[in-house]
Amino acid sequence: MTLLITLSVVVIALLIAGLALYLFILGGQLSRVADTLEECADLVWDIHSNAEVIEPGLERINRTAGTVAGALPLLYSMAEGIVTGATYEPAPADAPPEVARPAMGTRRSRFLEGVGYRPEG
């Protein structure tokens, strides 16, 4: 019977020691979490104080964005009109290719004028 009582006391002591170790480790982890949360709270307050300066300008930006958003349908319809007029239409397959010409028209050479030759036409 004494052996049973002794083993019960040892098991209870080990259980209490295990719980104490668990609580010690848990307390250390909770302490680190609390420190981290305190640092986060300080950062949040810094961000809040920095954002207070931006808020009046943000209202102006939102008002300008609203104006731009209101003009988008008009701009969209104007862009559609431009695209409709500039839509590429490929040449028919049986048509001969066009000769490439410069956009400014035919070039005029001044070399011939320098020697006094002026072609007719």
Radius of gyration, Cα only, in angstroms?
Answer: 43 Å
Share of β-strand residues:
under 5%
| Broad structural category | mainly alpha
The average pLDDT is 84
Helix content: over 70%
Low-confidence stretches: none
Q: Summarize the biggest pleated sheet.
A: none
Helix and strand sequence: HH
Query: What coarse outline follows from CA principal-axis ratios?
Result: elongated
Total number of helices: 2
Distance between the termini: 135 Å
How many E strands?
A: 0
Q: How would you describe this protein?
A:
- The chain has about 120 residues and is an all-alpha fold.
- It has a domain at about 5-80.
- The protein is about 75% helix and about 0% strand.
- It has helices spanning about 1-85, 110-115.
